Amino acid sequence: MLSAEDTAIPAVKIITPKKHGDHRGFFSEVYKQSDLASAGIELVFVQDNHSLSAQVGTLRGLHFQSAPFAQDKLVRVARGRALDVAVDLRASSPTFGKHVAIELSAQNWRQLLVPIGFAHGFVTLEPNTEVLYKVTAPYSPANDHGLAFNDPALGIDWRLPHGELVLSDKDQKHPRLADLPRYFD
């Protein structure tokens, strides 16, 4: 069984699967559809993604896809540690433009459920961090969008100085929230 808890933005949930350990190591059902359904989360995932970030400070994001390929994401860290961030892009939401930042690690075994209508990103806090996430829609280049990680209006504390962050060229060029079209009502 798993635990599911609300964050400061209730649509974003922390999921913690049960982990059974002994002298051999551990066993965990990291994803079980019926357990999520019992927690009121009924999603159908269609794709698994896996990233390895070699350097501390590797920042991936903030990313999202628009309809009809908008994605819910269930994110976890299998090795290392990362600060995972979800930014509310739902224009009619009372938490529009607000964010949740949760540390995920192989140690704490937590996962973050990032629903449709949120931009998602993470920064690695340990070398060789592996992040895995399930999504409810396949990748669509035509529907792939981003939000500036360093937009002052978002006020995200990435825990590292911006000069120490490692980003792709693409992730350095995303628009600020004020310049972003309203993709989600």
From TrEMBL:
InterPro entries: RmlC-like, RmlC-like_jellyroll, RmlC_Cupin_sf. Pathway: Carbohydrate biosynthesis; dTDP-L-rhamnose biosynthesis. It catalyses: dTDP-4-dehydro-6-deoxy-alpha-D-glucose = dTDP-4-dehydro-beta-L-rhamnose. It is an enzyme of class 5 (isomerase). GO terms for molecular function: dTDP-4-dehydrorhamnose 3,5-epimerase activity. Pfam families: dTDP_sugar_isom. Its EC number is 5.1.3.13. Keywords: Isomerase. Catalyzes the epimerization of the C3' and C5'positions of dTDP-6-deoxy-D-xylo-4-hexulose, forming dTDP-6-deoxy-L-lyxo-4-hexulose. Homodimer. Belongs to the dTDP-4-dehydrorhamnose 3,5-epimerase family. PANTHER family: DTDP-6-DEOXY-D-GLUCOSE-3,5 EPIMERASE, THYMIDINE DIPHOSPHO-4-KETO-RHAMNOSE 3,5-EPIMERASE. This is dTDP-4-dehydrorhamnose 3,5-epimerase. It comes from Bosea eneae.
